[in-house]
């Protein structure tokens, strides 16, 4: 049952990492105004893409971190700076004490200055760690959610860098959470394989859509089986009301509907803007203000909870220390981990455990490119091993760019189907990586030549 | 009196920025183990160095952001990514609405994803903004502290991006703080020109020093007129006690002595470690835990204040939203702004105003390379225009690398003397920039060849 015992049989000390490649891959999504919100008006969904090769292994680890275009080159520069810490390391050593290896990246004595554990360097760590988990899954011949679900509670907590966590959660508390779910995990695996994991869609909710477009997209989403919806708000209260009226008319008064302001407001403006929208029965307001503002989110939460509106945030929450504070101070009702903002699965597990301790549901951020592919593994693991429930939990879903992946997400009747191929599902097709390489891939050459 | 009126006479719309240069400059300080602390054992003090040229102007703006070696190349990559936002801009436009220009760098719709306002991209913003202030000072023929001190309260608050601040401080509150000090500012200018601004030294306090070395360095510092001292602690409580005993014996029981753990501890460990050192009459413990942990610092503060120990932090505090929370929640007794971690003077002014509102003294982080040169301007401006007092305030001082600057700090009798040359004092000698350019400068060539 122990995955570590398994890999020890497959891997040998001579399986040493020989190559860490990175590439700057961008999709010109801004041309179609997909994904525009109150703060990111022209995103080109992008990936700082990593492959990891090891001696004596034909399997290759694929990972990425997500950005929205410009700046992707800076994250690639940061991946390059991590290379000496990765190449030459034995996979057995890494997977035997993954927390120590993670710490060696995030706490490198010189590099940590430009974080620590935040910004470009932490996004780069995520890409590397995501690729290592993909490789580990492929070595074990398991999707990553299963690799994790097959671990014992003790193995799971050994993946985490516990620095700065002990005032909020101890290893013993974490073990108790995991042991509580351990005996019944097989039942949940069977159950989620049957039903999938519920998703919500933002397809009808982007800023600037006409009433007719919103209507058509709501109907399409309902036909596709979606039972939860999200709408982008925050530029103009009267336009928000216009779009919310159309959506509510289409989906009915009680279908879960969430809202997202993408960091648009000051604290008191968030409270007044959302109060003006209280008739629309919104489950949460996401990123109402600066993603760093723990106390601000707590204040907004105290004002809006009596109106039935919860606080969701996390996609820009940069490390476990920030999540710790959001969770312990009641500043977050829905915990939106990001698979690339945090430093990969190792750090994410610590946040899942913190959320379980404080009784806050985890509803991952997705969309972008590759995020849906990653987070399905995390939510399934959370359900099977940590929270033990799907109640109040839902994964974001956006129907963009999945065609570029070898093992794209499968959505049926508004739910993510459980992935079954080995790895972390983030491997992009070789032809896509070539065509969208920035700025020399064929798509960009054509675009830049025509400008 | 209005500097804006002045520059409008000097600058013309055709003074447009034509070049933004960056270079990766590193000093091999790790060879001498200068500056080692509990988390940064081998710093190579480094600068991502910026020069800004404008058409029709012979003056050049020089700025930098500080790092500790590896990772400096990532910040340089981030500066490169900012270039299109800077080159082509008119200096008149920038200085007329500096807050808007600042926002255009920190909130660029794609680049902001890899922050926002944190990590490599924000350090890069600092280098650019520092260079622009240097250029503005040179154009006005004033040191930057004087350029600022000659501005009206209204001009000063127009420098700030107010997004996310209004729940803690309004523009009217900020104006009231500035107007209170405005009539008496000339007296304080004369006074600080006479006395200088008090400094403390860490020279005797680094980890790993022998009793004899500590003794000698304490005596030297006392001879030089220093009246406040800081010691690095946190690796081992018994070694901390050994060194504190030697220092206290040398400087006496009542001379202000501060301590710095450089993020070493978990929250509860910080409390127990510092409780064990309570006999040494330590004014503050600096960075006891993760620099992101507002609630953790608040808890440590509640435990240690009854022992007479305050909480100092800020050198890794990445933006005004974090400072806002530290200040309003009582998590910080001493506010240690960093001239390069925050996005330059514009953002720093907002933190000075927040600190004044919440009654917390600002004691800037310095040392490294160039930091002492910058922060003297900030503390003098704080004294003249914002806080109106030096009580409980002191600037860090480390005697490293000043010889590389054209206008190095001058310390007399333990105080920073007021700088008088135009600009921000961060211009490095051309020969130093050439010799320490990484990895092709003569110093690095020799070093790398010999390894």
UniProtKB/TrEMBL annotation, chains A, B:
Classification via SMART domains: MR_MLE
GO biological process: amino acid catabolic process; carbohydrate catabolic process
Keyword terms of this UniProt record: Lyase, Magnesium, Metal-binding
Cofactors that this protein relies on: Mg(2+)
EC number: 4.2.1.68
InterPro entries tied to this protein: Enolase-like_C_sf (IPR036849), Enolase-like_N (IPR029017), Enolase_C-like (IPR029065), L-fuconate_dehydratase (IPR034610), Mandel_Rmase/mucon_lact_enz_CS (IPR018110), Mandelate_racemase_C (IPR013342), Mandelate_racemase_N_dom (IPR013341), RHMD-like (IPR046945)
Catalysed reaction equations from the record: L-fuconate = 2-dehydro-3-deoxy-L-fuconate + H2O
GO molecular function: L-fuconate dehydratase activity; magnesium ion binding
Coiled-coil regions, chain positions: none
Residues annotated as domain Mandelate racemase/muconate lactonizing enzyme C-terminal: 211-307
Recorded superkingdom: Eukaryota
Keyword Cytoplasm: no
Top EC class of this enzyme: lyase
Recorded family membership: Belongs to the mandelate racemase/muconate lactonizing enzyme family. ENOSF1 subfamily.
Protein name, as recorded: Mitochondrial enolase superfamily member 1
Gene this chain is encoded by: 100636591
């Amino acid at each position: 049952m122990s995955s570590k015992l398994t890999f020890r049989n497959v891997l040998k000390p001579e399986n040493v990492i020989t190559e860490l490649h990175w590439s700057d891959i961008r999709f010109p999504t801004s041309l179609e105004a997909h994904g525009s919100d109150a703060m990111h008006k022209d995103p080109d969904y992008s990936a700082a893409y990593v492959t990891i090769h090891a001696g004596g292994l034909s399997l290759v680890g694929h990972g990425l971190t997500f950005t929205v275009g410009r700046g992707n080159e800076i994250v690639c520069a940061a991946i390059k700076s991590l290379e000496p810490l990765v190449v030459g390391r034995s996979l057995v050593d890494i997977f035997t004490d993954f927390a120590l290896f993670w710490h060696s990246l995030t706490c490198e004595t010189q590099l940590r200055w430009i974080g620590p554990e935040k910004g470009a360097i932490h996004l780069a760590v995520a890409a590397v760690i995501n690729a290592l988990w993909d490789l580990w899954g492929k070595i074990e011949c398991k999707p990553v959610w299963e690799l994790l679900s097959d671990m014992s509670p003790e193995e799971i907590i050994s993946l985490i860098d516990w620095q700065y966590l002990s005032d909020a959660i101890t290893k013993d508390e974490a073990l108790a959470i995991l042991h509580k779910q351990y005996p019944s995990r097989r039942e949940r695996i069977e159950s989620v394989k049957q039903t999938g994991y519920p998703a919500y869609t933002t397809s009808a909710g982007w800023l600037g859509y006409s009433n007719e477009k919103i209507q058509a997209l709501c109907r399409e989403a309902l036909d596709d089986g979606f039972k939860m919806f999200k709408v982008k708000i925050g530029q103009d209260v009267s336009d928000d009301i216009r779009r919310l009226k159309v959506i509510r008319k289409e989906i009915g008064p009680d279908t879960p509907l969430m809202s997202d302001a993408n960091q648009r407001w000051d604290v008191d403006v968030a409270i007044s803007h959302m109060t003006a929208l209280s008739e629309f029965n919104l489950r949460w307001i996401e990123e109402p203000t600066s993603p760093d503002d723990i106390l601000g989110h707590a204040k907004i939460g105290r004002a809006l909870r009596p109106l039935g509106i919860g606080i969701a945030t996390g996609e820009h929450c940069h490390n476990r220390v920030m999540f710790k504070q959001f969770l312990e101070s009641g500043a977050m009702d829905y915990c939106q981990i990001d698979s690339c903002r945090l430093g990969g699965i190792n750090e994410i597990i610590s946040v899942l455990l913190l959320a379980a301790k404080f009784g806050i549901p985890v509803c991952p951020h997705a969309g972008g490119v590759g995020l849906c592919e990653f987070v399905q593994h995390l939510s399934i693991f959370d359900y099977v091993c940590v929270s033990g429930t799907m109640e109040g939990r839902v994964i974001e879903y956006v129907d963009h760019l999945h065609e570029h992946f070898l093992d794209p997400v499968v959505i049926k009747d508004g739910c993510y189907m459980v992935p079954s191929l080995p790895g972390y599902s983030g491997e992009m097709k070789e032809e896509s990586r070539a065509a969208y390489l920035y700025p020399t891939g064929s798509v960009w050459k054509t675009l830049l030549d025509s400008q």
